[in-house]
Amino acid sequence: MIYGILSTIAFIIILPFWLVVGLFKPTLTVGFKEKCGFYDSLPALQPSNPPTLLFYGVSVGEVIAIENLIKKTRETFPNTNIIVLTGTKTGQEIAHKKLSNTADFISYFPFDFPFCIKNMLKKLKPDAVFIAETELWPNFANTLNKQKIPIPLFIINGRISDRTYKSYKKLSFFFSPILKKYTNIFTQSKQDNEKLISIGANPKTTAVMGNLKFDIKKPDASTLGFKKNSQHKILIAASTHNGEDEIVLKVFSKLKSEFPNLKLILAPRHPERNENVFNLIKKNEFTCSKRSENVDFEQNDVILLDTMGELAKFYSVCDIAFIGGSFNKTGGHNPLEATIFKKPIVSGPSIHNFKDIYSILTSSDAGKIVKTPQELQKHLHKLLSDEIYYQKASQDCKTVFEQNQGALEFVIKVLQTLV
After folding, report:
1. Res 40: pLDDT
2. Which residues participate in catalysis according to the annotation?
3. Which DSSP string do the residues of 229-241 spell out, in sequence order?
4. Which of 33, 49, 285, 396 has the highest local Cβ count within 10 Å?
């Protein structure tokens, strides 16, 4: 009660300054109206039976985590109303890109002020709320608990970093009552589970579910129609961005002088760059062809993957994968598409879109983050030259999946008790 009053007063005081600063920095006020609980284009939802399920992922990583869950929810409960809310502009963009044909409504999550939350509840009328990872909103949790019929509130895919844990632990007197307002808290790991309980979560309603991001299906690569010579070692450079192709080709050139049987599949992230990258490969004097020409490595050192929708399958034929978007500010791409085929991955330092996955992969030899092109070359050399190390890294990929899968079905079973 006191927190709600104080936070509302603070919001009223800050609001004018916020709006003024927003005139000069528009990103601060993106989605401002919706975050206050005012939605212009309301969803055409079905009546309350079946229920309306609200999923919240604050930004890109969280939306990616719940993507397959939302699609599975639609498949399992086709008549259920599904709402997806995010907290950031980039989260909105990825939600619309990946879930516009699945969700009934996509917009912004309200500010954690009572009147914003009440506006949202009045407009969207959710019957249950699922928050991805660990977003603790005191007013939100309190408001849902105070409804005439309390709205079930869940944390799914919950996790807490060591750094955050230390801060929360010091303030457990504040966070403990908040955590106890959640219907259930389902965590990614036993460690996350223990941390949250030590802060104040109810041990009877807190359980390990695994990690939703690991619940992906291995693509059927049998239709790929690509012949691989068993004598070849294949490096795939996946989803590369401008500037990364030069790094990869330079490293590949140095490695090939020592490993003549090394081959490269280069897959630019954006198709419009294919021709420029192809010319760059030829400029570096490699024998090369395009995948669209239905070629193999018998006459080529490099193949440009210029076809759509085949990258995930090509991980099945590679030995090692470099994941692009990591030597610039993109934030990396999903490394699990490679590791599901037991292929060790290596990335540059920019991996913030998948930092939780990388923290798991790099805790073993399944994945490696390098800071420079020189480190990239050194690590690839180790994977190519040390067979024992390579087999250990490959086995670690398998182990990681075995330890983290099953989360999706876990949540679907929870949904079955609500729908």
Report:
1. 82
2. 62
3. -TT-EEEEEEEE-
4. 396
